[in-house]
Amino acid sequence: MSLDISFIGVLIGSIMASSVPLILAASGELITERSGVLNLGVEGMMIIGAISGFALMVITDNLFIAIIGSMLSGVVISLIFGFLTQSLLTNHVATGLALTIFGIGLSAMLGKNFVGIPGKDFPILFSSLRESIPFFGPILFGHSIVLYFAFALPFLTNYFLKKTKLGLVVRAVGDSPVSASNQGINVILVRYCCILYGGGMCGLAGAYLSLIYTPQWIENMTAGRGWIALALVVFATWSPIKVLIGAIIFGGISILQLHMQAVGFRIPVQFLIALPYLMTIIVLVVISRDSRKIKLNTPTSLGRIFYKEK
Amino acid sequence: MEDLLIKIEKRNDVPTTLYFFTPFIAIILTIIGGGIIFYTLGFNPIEALKFYFITPISNLYGFSELLLKATPLCLIAIGLSFCFKSNNWNIGAEGQLTFGAIVGGGVALLFYNQEGFYILPLIIIAGAIGGMIFALIPAILKTYFNTNEILVSLMLVYVSKLILDYLVVGPWSNPEGFNFPETRQFSDSARMPLLFEGLRIHAGIFIALAAVFVSWFVLYKTYLGFQIKVSGLSLKTAKYAGFKGKTMILIVFMISGACAGMAGVGEITGPIGQLHRMISPDYGFTAIIVAFLGRLNPFGIIFASLVVSLTYLGAETTQIFLQIPQYTGQVFQGMILFFLLASDYLLFFKIKFQNFNKNELRH
Fold first, then answer.
1. Helices A92-110 and B283-293, axial angle in degrees (round to 10)
2. CA–CA min distance B158, chain A (Å)
3. Residues in chain A within 8 Å Cβ distance of B148
4. Which fold would CATH assign to domain A5-297?
């Protein structure tokens, strides 16, 4: 393997690209979870976003509509989850699993006629700078707008949660829905909004895969990234900035794994792929034994049903 | 809110008949929902539904396939019912199934060139132990480190699938297999006996049925079952009554893991006959639907496993007859769970249609 400086630049650029769907989905899920809702349907919402984005691109030939449409489809599919868990008070875990199973099935049915259609080139920004600047060029430039948005998102999310009044409301609802409700906050409404936002971001994450990362439609193309995004939120201990760091680590592992295969490295590939899951379990154990650490960011009422007697 | 014509009231106790009736509502709604989806895809909904629900079981072979796929679903769901009843969210049955199949398969490979009546029982026990060990990981982390079992058991699914992948590609791959990602074929003694000539239904169904009766006995006739149910209803009561919470968590996870492990063994020693990457079409996840649809009741789970098994078969026949991707099964499975969870609302809340004026007169 040639380890010259420009190769490392390209490598970092590709790691960034592979971490984008994780950042988007995990940032969305983070807001949902901070409001006290555990949505295990990330994979399902992503795959629905992927097929709707691709289908809209083929039908309308307009990438902007495709991107917006994928987010809307994520919102619509998460509305099922929101309605069931918030209005009909169903169990979050079961409903989320149903959403994933349903989403994977539905996307394959909808995508039946889109298999094998080639994708379109997604416009990339600053492509001339990418070539002209060594090392930093491939890292900073020549990416799609979605990548830049994804890398800004954790900071925006952090600002939203820590500095805005609405962010405080979301955290209050997640930590103590009863007190929040007594303060006159409409807990159900806040949770609905957070679920729908999470759905939108997962939809976008899916569209990134089918429109930008590997521009085509393949059945089940999210390939477990939704579960990794879910792990990522826990790995990041519900902190948006750590989501970014974690996404780069997890994305990096997936890219390194490809390169190691190519050079015949002796570590089993499967071990590398399993690493994000193992790391998440270790982080979970570490934060869970120390009650102070887990209280720092963990939404206290995560996954619990809130019901207000009318 | 007296001016509302519809009033929603919390029920004090759930009527048993309604509790076991809502799964049927869910199934009917799923069939209707499926018809609508087929219609929007441009098929005649009645005909498509007939292909989906009737054609697969219209002959003896189809019926045997129904039982074949219902066997692992039923077995896993029985195990899960212990966890769910006691409020332990083990959603990693797929991982426990895979690990059970790895351990059981390992034993089968040890005896690949031998015959003997003792081989199959050894494999089944090994599979049960494998599933048990894998289920103990989230259980121990939950009891001693206060770790969330939902996330740990879920993460471990992928870990066990990757272990299987590593083994069938690497150290366990068939030396005469031209580098295909699969192990040697198991010997005849390592295979589940077939029940009928020409059909794939095998003796594993007896393990599932035994599990049904044992679980019924344990849950409804023993002190352990009583503890499990009380902890599920109220953890505080269970603590007050002095039940050993930690031991119980470990026990329910071990039962659940053992069942999933045996289901995995049933697959590899039954229809498959070796280890490869695809030993289960997500039976471990689908069994969660089965457990819910069967209302965590052993006999309800038998019925539910047949219904969900039919969604797998229906997906296969519609793929053949209508060229719809096989993933249709998941659409139906997801819908069943959606509608079931939604209809649970009727259990916990009464919807009263009332007339404001009449009520006023009565008071």
1. 120
2. 7
3. 234, 284, 288
4. ABC transporter involved in vitamin B12 uptake, BtuC (1.10.3470)
